[in-house]
Design goal:
single chain, alpha/beta, N-(1-d-carboxylethyl)-l-norvaline Dehydrogenase, domain 2, 2 domains, 8-stranded mixed β-sheet, elongated
């Protein structure tokens, strides 16, 4: 059984890359930590191993049988599935498995289907914030766990996290992380296009950076358009969809004249075209998000900016 006193937890980390090492370095200050990774060899041992801050298991099975909590920090969903299968014969009742690799909610359910019949409990503890934040104990964790698992999970994550958000159901942490990551990755493509169009016109990069870094730049679509308008259903006044569509069209024409390829911005313009066809011309362009309400039968006004 998993100990009720968090100080007695024996923690195993499977996957000792950058994320695994960052977690181990912090957790080893409070817990007995054992790690396993196929790439660990005695000629290239990480500093944590050399300094004996963590133990090294010879196999997944050995680690599983020796700890109360197993944390996955693996590179792919396939790796998580392979490890789960190797754990089966060594699982003991009450073993807590925390999946901190980036996987889908379906992967979480499938891991649970493999391990739960043998007595393990699987939760998703998705991490956001990068390696530096993990090393500083300042990461953000998105936890998908039943209410009965929260206390145990929080006891461990408090040493690693500046924020812990509970998504209340298995798979919820990964759902939220995939959305957050997708936003970051897509926004970076839009920014890359903006920088390319700027550079093609000799606009100083420092000026463009400052413009986008202002509250009226990158933050405003989230804080104002979503938080102050979409969540409240308020689309009166503001910048009209017609004007936003016009500006988008002018940007695309400019990029074309400069022979700068733009992909994400072109795709975004399609949404404004659809909004125009739906009669949204005069409303603040925050209204374009309601297209998804219509398509999916959702109500974004139940959201919150808090």
């Amino acid at each position: 059984m998993t100990p009720t006193n968090s100080e007695t937890f024996r923690i195993g980390i499977i996957g000792f890359g950058q994320v695994g090492q960052a977690m181990a370095g912090v957790l080893a200050r409070s817990y007995a930590v054992t790690v396993f990774d196929l790439q660990i060899d005695k000629s290239r041992e990480p500093a944590l191993v050399k300094e004996c801050q963590v133990g090294v298991a010879a196999s997944v099975a050995e680690l599983t049988g020796a700890v109360d909590v197993v944390i996955f920090c693996l590179p792919t969903p396939a790796a998580s599935h392979a490890v789960a299968k190797q754990m089966v014969d060594s699982v003991h009742p009450g073993l807590l498995v925390m999946e901190s690799s980036t996987v889908t909610p379906q992967d979480i359910f499938e891991l649970d289907a493999v391990l739960a019949p043998h007595g393990a409990r699987v939760v998703d503890t998705a991490v956001i914030g990068g390696i530096h934040a993990l090393k500083q104990g300042q990461a953000v964790f998105l936890v998908g766990a039943a209410e009965g698992e929260v206390a145990t999970v929080d006891a461990i994550l408090r040493t690693l996290a500046a924020e812990i958000h509970h998504l209340k159901r298995q798979g919820g942490g990964m759902r939220a992380k995939l959305v957050a990551n997708a936003v970051a990755h897509a926004v970076y493509v839009v920014l890359s296009e903006a920088i390319a169009v700027s550079a093609a016109q000799d606009i100083p990069m420092d000026i463009m950076y400052r413009l986008l870094n202002r509250e009226s730049g990158l933050a405003r679509p989230l804080t104002h358009r979503i938080g102050e308008r979409l969540f409240k259903g308020d689309f009166t006044g503001g910048m009209s969809t017609a004007n936003a569509r016009k500006d988008s069209k002018l940007f695309l024409e400019l990029a074309h004249s400069l022979n700068v390829p733009v992909f994400a911005t072109q795709a975004a313009h399609t949404v404004y075209d659809i909004a125009a066809s739906e009669g949204m011309h005069a409303d603040d362009y925050a209204i374009v998000a309601t297209l998804w309400e219509k398509w999916l039968g959702l109500d974004f006004k139940t959201g919150s900016a808090a």
